[in-house]
Amino acid sequence: EYQDTNTIQERILLLLAGWRYSRHIQTELEKQRGLRTELTTAKEMLEHKVQQRTAELESVNRQLETLSITDELTGLANRRRFDSYWAEEWQRAMRQGTSLAVIMMDVDHFKNYNDHYGHPLGDECLRQLGALLQVTIRRAGELAARYGGEEFVVALPGATAQQAAETAAALLAAVEAAHIPHLASPVSNIVTISLGVATGFPNAGDERGRLITLADEALYPAKHRGRNCIAMTEMTGAPPGT
Q: CA-to-CA distance for 220 and 129, rounded, in angstroms?
């Protein structure tokens, strides 16, 4: 009987020890599961933050890129953007044998405007002209840019001389219709513009800036005719492949 009692006690102790060990194992497993959950949550939060920061960085980079190619005053493309765009369109026109047109636009007697109204209003005048360009130049592939000072430029890929002339006429009419006062102008009591238009078919032997130079030179006869008008010119040379 004594031995049976010892045996029962030993079994109880073993069961108790087993139960305690089992509880210990369960506790440890629960801790490990908790740690895994915490690690998974922390990892997901970290990945979310990385994605968020990456998106924010990409957004900032896009904004910086936009600012680097945008004229701060008018919101149009700036000279850097235009030069890059023009190089691409020149090469495309040569490859495809298509025409290319450019319009140089100059504000008539803008120095008089600044002297009379002051530079802040001069800046406001340029902003208004930039807005008019954005509204008027809307066809796909066309680009309006501020070229420098009071001079603007419009590139018209694939445009014929007639189409370029029509666009220039639309710009002339839009500026006139805006009725921006210019009491210091000997041309009119409102702001007017002069436009030089050049068209042609780029060839491999042509300088990329030749068409722009021709359009800029066309401004001189427009100004000599009293300003507030359009002068046209064409780049000599047949379309590539003809």
A: 21
